[in-house]
Fold Phosphotransferase.
Amino acid sequence: GTGCNACYMEEMHNVELVEGDEGRMCVNTEWGAFGASGELDEFLLEYDRVVDETSLNPGQQLYEKIIGGKYMGEIVRLVLLKLVDENLLFNGEASEKLKTCGTFETRFVSQIESDSGDRKQIYNILTAFELLPSGTDCDIVRMVCESVSTRAAQMCSAGLAGVINRMRESRSQDTLKITVGVDGSVYKLHPSFKDRFHATVRQLTPGCDITFIQSEEGSGRGAALISAVACKMACMIGQ
């Protein structure tokens, strides 16, 4: 959705700030803030750095800025402008609307990737930006959208896979059966994000049997609720 966060059930004996070793505690990772100490530097592209520098909180929430729906459309817009500058798109000419920060909304990414193949939907979106795209332009724009949204799905998958693998190791289980509750407008509305996300998480978590359920509440308190409900459901169905 707009941002990104995760909660998970940690073994109590690993929670240093709370007394007692029995049971589990729901931990809010606030992982959207990951990267503030340079952990993501080698993964950040020039477009990510522009998004960060022009944001209200530069240097913060870097992981979220790579993944979140709030930023995905802007990253696509910056890539398109770079292609225009290199004379690879729109005959080297960008409209004033495309040059304006924040105009290319993330919903356009979903709509472009939902195009049936006749390019009509892509063409309509681009002409609304006062552009006159060729068929090749439409195909390139779709490829850009697919690349940006796929990276977001895979980066998000890496974070979740890290949490799941930690849970399996903490519980000393050869195979961890787990239910993951997920929410977010990008997850729910983008035509391919969900499938790419699921596939990459499973690829990165050998030895884990993962069931995904879709929730209706967002980050922060919602992430904790999703985690708790997912855990409860897993217990109810005997996982």
Summary: Residues 135-170 form the longest helix (36 residues).
